[in-house]
Amino acid sequence: MKTTISEVNKYLGQEVTIGAWLANKRSSGKIAFLQLRDGTGFIQGVVVKSEVEEAIFKQAKSLTQETSLYVKGVVQEDSRSPFGYELQVTGIEVIHEAIDYPITPKEHGTEFLMDHRHLWLRSRRQHAVMKIRNEIIRATYEFFNKEGFVKVDPPILTGSSPEGTTELFHTKYFDEDAFLSQSGQLYMEAAAMALGKVFSFGPTFRAEKSKTRRHLIEFWMIEPEMAFYQFEDNLKVQEEYVSYIVQSVLENCQLELERLGRDTSKLEKIKAPFPRISYDDAIKFLHEKGFDDITWGDDFGAPHETAIAENYDMPVFITHYPTSLKPFYMQPDPDREEVVLCADLIAPEGYGEIIGGSERVHDVNLIKERVKEHGLETDAYKWYLELREYGSVPHSGFGLGLERTVAWLSGVEHVRETIPFPRLLNRIYP
Ligand code: 4AD
Ligand code: MG
Asked: Mean pLDDT in the chain?
């Protein structure tokens, strides 16, 4: 019976065949342990010299790392492995022998691993992170569909720049100038006026000269946008959504979290509602903590965010940032024009900002003013202003950075391990 590692539990005591790669191997004179992987999972194959033909044992002992093979064996329970099963090998058919696989079980430097990302993805650790990424994506679709949102796909090639003009990837669109999308938000606002509650999931691009563990040049964002939702309604969607994906990962990625050594007790606590602190209070708190380098009107850096987040064992919303710090589309607080009705969601354990969101300006005159102030009064925004001309309504939305969320839930230090092929400052290979 041909099957996969993820399905062996259905064949206890039976002989199965699995197409696999040899991840690693240990052997003595009497027994060989083959660490097999097939993409769906990892299983140990045991070859006992006294129980197989001489030739099979010899072949098992000579297998090289990452050789592809069909392995025949009897599925057995194995209480010592977290996976719970092993394969008593009865036959081996090599498909392709791998010679001198570059990533050996010894330690390799980061640059070396990054240069071999196309192979590094095969490792147990990367496999676990990619499965967690997939679970977050799956749970995202599940959550928003359950809540009545419609998935809408904004364009990648655009003429506008929602998040400021300094970090744009410029390209030619035939004879016109164009940019790679920084955020689908402006288009999602148009979509919300057509479909009510919408969400997008797609790649976004920032030509940011940042070389930190939280920055990618190309990253994936989930961007919900909701007509008739105001500041409070927006935060509620965010905390429920984030709780949902955390609980989904806990439920469906137990093996992966264990393989990564993730402390899941910290994730189990993540349930809505989330704590909040205003920007004003955050500044006061930082001053009390001895951060003399920051004054009202400054943006927070990673150390500031981490210091604030350390007060909570939950993600925390920092609300009401200075208007001057934030993009043109954010709605100023009607009682206090110098701050906007926005919130950033800061993940615990030092993972930083995972969400940026706000209520949007819906007054036509105010949006025109704001566009002008930001020097964006061009034809590229004509359509965006028109959204406020015809039945404008209060609306709100946010963007969750997938890779930072994967890093947090997986407990990996750097976002470079959270996307299959990271685009980083000075790296577009492989
Ligand atoms: O805060 P940002 O820039 O917000 C927006 O783009 C809004 N237009 C979203 C919206 O309201 N629809 O980005 C949102 C999130 C950040 O909180 C962060 O998680 C992630 O996107 N992000 C990055 N992730 C990796 N690398 C980068 N360079 C990132 N820049 C932002
Ligand atoms: Mg932000």
From this structure: 96
From-to residues of CATH 2.40.50.140 in the chain = 2-96
Bridge partners (DSSP) of residue 8 are none
CA 13 to ligand 1 centroid distance, Å: 50
Beta bridge partners of 179: 158, 170
- Give 47's strand partners: 32
Give residue 166 CA to ligand 2 midpoint distance, Å: 14
CATH architecture of the domain covering 117-417: 2-Layer Sandwich (3.30)
DSSP 298: P
d(CA 303, CA 295): 15
Atom of ligand 1 nearest to the CA of 398: 11
Which-ligand-closest: CA of 167? 1
Are 168 and 182 a contacting pair, CB within 8 Å?
yes
Maximum pairwise Cα distance, the chain:
85
Distance CA 153, CA 184 (A): 8
The Å distance, Cα 216 to ligand 1 centre, comes to: 10
**Residue type present at position 235:** L
| Mutate which of 180, 205, 353 for ligand 1 pocket (most atoms within 8 A of beta carbon) | 353
Helix (H/G/I), strand (E/B), else coil: 288: helix
Q: Which ligand is nearest to the CA of 202?
A: 1
Judging by DSSP bridges, how do beta strands 197-205 and 336-340 pair with one another? unpaired
pTM score, whole prediction: 0.97
Atom of ligand 1 at shortest range from CA of 210: 28
Contact 359, 147 (CB under 8 A): no
Residue given tokens 């196309």 in the structure block: 118
Question: What does the DSSP 8-state code read for residue 12?
Answer: B
Measured from the Cα of 400, ligand 1's closest atom is: 15
Task: Give the burial string for 12-27 (b: 16+ CB within 10 Å, else e).
Answer: eeeebebbbbbbbbeb
Kindly report, residue by residue over 8-65, the tens digit of the pLDDT: 999 999 999 999 999 999 999 999 999 999 999 999 999 999 999 999 999 999 999 9
At 290, phi and psi to the nearest 5? 90, 10
CA 141, 145, 149, 155 torsion-angle sign = positive
Residues of the chain where predicted confidence (pLDDT) is lower than 50 = none
CATH among 2.60.120.260, 1.10.10.60, 2.40.50.140, 3.40.50.720 for 2-96: 2.40.50.140
Q: Tell me where in the chain the CATH 3.30.930.10 domain(s) lie.
A: 117-417
Cβ(332) – ligand 1 distance below 6 Å: no
